[in-house]
Inverse folding.
């Protein structure tokens, strides 16, 4: 819906309300869900426009995410793992026949934490909870429903098109994106470590104990309890806040042609996640690496494209400047919420300086039926940053850089033509 409420009045060149609503239903989820938008636009004079909007967006799981969430499988937990509510082995004594006899101590977890996993008080510290050395404890992947993740996006901005500078448009927008129930994947160790250290229901509810309090299940006879959950599920929150800047300017030079300038910049002030209600919020802006900062978002990035076109549109040349701000490895962040700890600071391969790329494109419109284009991206053939262990940074094998962010192939040249018949 677009509803212009006032037009061409004093202090209200335009006052408009926009709205939208959608109701969705996916076969992979038992419930319907809705998205909506509300936006207000006010132009007190023709030169300036104020705008603000709030949006509720939802994303249902992808086909892969739905499959991972619903496809049930069981597996044995790492043999070195032990239920933290079971007694710990503090040493081994030698028996009369030379056999090793374990001597047990207190469990790693408190009774309150174990109660949060569903363990009865009388079972706390029982040797029955020990993961059997032959069978072990069990994890279960899949067999669950993943709900859509929900984002609330608020934007506030202004657009200026001054009449005394024809061809110029400048806009500034503040964006606040807050994502709830974000969809992601983690294994049993993530939930086990989180429950042990926090006692939060967010982590501890992933423990499903059998009637004996054990973390063991047999898919054939006892498939509904006795495991730690892992796989694709809903997490807590993710956020992205910042400012967007845009400017366009068309300079007409008569018979000499025209120049077009197009600028787009983004200042990111917050980009990160909060894994549970009691864990600290991470802000990964300007950092990379570690378990939680794989987004590679610098504080500032921009593009500036300058295009010259002849008056007859026969020839145009476009130079684009791409800038990616610097990034620092989380090991040198000094921030414990990003995984830093005392003594972790690295002396090499811990910082990527700002990167500048330049792209050039030429276009020839020979006639109405034929045009030719030549483009060269990264014309200075700037190489990407190199890492000694790229899997630690990107989670990917067989590369030694951040391929999604930097031009790993160097200079790239493309030639194209359009023929109209």
């Amino acid at each position: 819906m677009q509803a212009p409420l006032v037009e061409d009045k004093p202090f209200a060149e335009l006052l408009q309300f926009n709205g939208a609503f959608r109701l969705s239903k996916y076969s992979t989820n038992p419930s319907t869900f809705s998205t909506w938008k509300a936006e207000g636009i006010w132009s007190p004079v023709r030169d300036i426009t104020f705008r603000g909007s709030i949006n509720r967006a939802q994303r249902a799981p992808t086909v892969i995410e739905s499959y991972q969430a619903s496809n049930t499988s069981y597996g044995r937990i790492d043999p070195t793992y032990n239920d933290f509510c079971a007694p710990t082995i503090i040493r081994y004594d030698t028996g009369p026949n030379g056999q090793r006899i374990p001597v047990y101590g207190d469990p790693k977890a408190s009774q309150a934490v174990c109660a949060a996993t569903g363990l009865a008080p009388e079972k706390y510290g029982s040797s029955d909870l020990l993961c059997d050395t032959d069978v072990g404890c069990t994890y279960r992947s899949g067999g669950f429903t993943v709900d859509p993740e929900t984002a609330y996006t608020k934007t506030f901005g202004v657009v200026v098109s001054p009449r005394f500078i024809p061809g110029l448009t400048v806009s500034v927008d503040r964006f606040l994106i807050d994502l709830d129930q974000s969809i992601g994947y983690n294994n049993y160790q993530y939930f086990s470590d989180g429950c042990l250290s926090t006692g939060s229901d967010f982590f501890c509810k992933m423990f499903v104990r059998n009637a004996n309090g054990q973390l063991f299940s047999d898919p054939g006879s006892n498939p509904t309890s006795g495991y730690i959950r892992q796989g694709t599920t809903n997490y807590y929150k993710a956020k992205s806040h910042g400012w967007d800047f845009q400017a366009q300017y068309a300079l007409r030079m008569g018979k000499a042609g025209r120049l077009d300038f197009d600028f787009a910049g983004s200042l990111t002030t917050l980009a990160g996640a909060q894994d549970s209600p009691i864990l600290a919020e991470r802000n990964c802006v300007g950092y990379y690496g570690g378990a939680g900062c794989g987004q590679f978002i610098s504080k500032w990035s921009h593009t500036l494209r300058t295009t010259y076109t002849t008056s007859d549109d026969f020839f145009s040349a476009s130079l684009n400047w791409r800038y990616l701000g610097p990034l620092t490895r989380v090991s040198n962040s000094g921030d414990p919420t990003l995984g830093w700890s005392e003594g972790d600071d690295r002396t090499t391969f811990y910082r990527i300086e700002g990167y500048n790329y330049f792209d050039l494109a030429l276009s020839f419109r020979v006639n109405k039926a034929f045009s030719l284009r030549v483009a060269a991206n990264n014309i200075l053939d700037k190489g990407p940053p190199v890492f000694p262990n790229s899997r630690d940074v990107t989670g990917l094998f067989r590369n030694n850089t951040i391929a999604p962010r930097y031009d790993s192939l160097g200079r790239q040249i493309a030639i194209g033509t359009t023929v109209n018949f």
Observations:
- The first helix runs from residue 63 to 70.
- The chain has five helices and 23 strands.
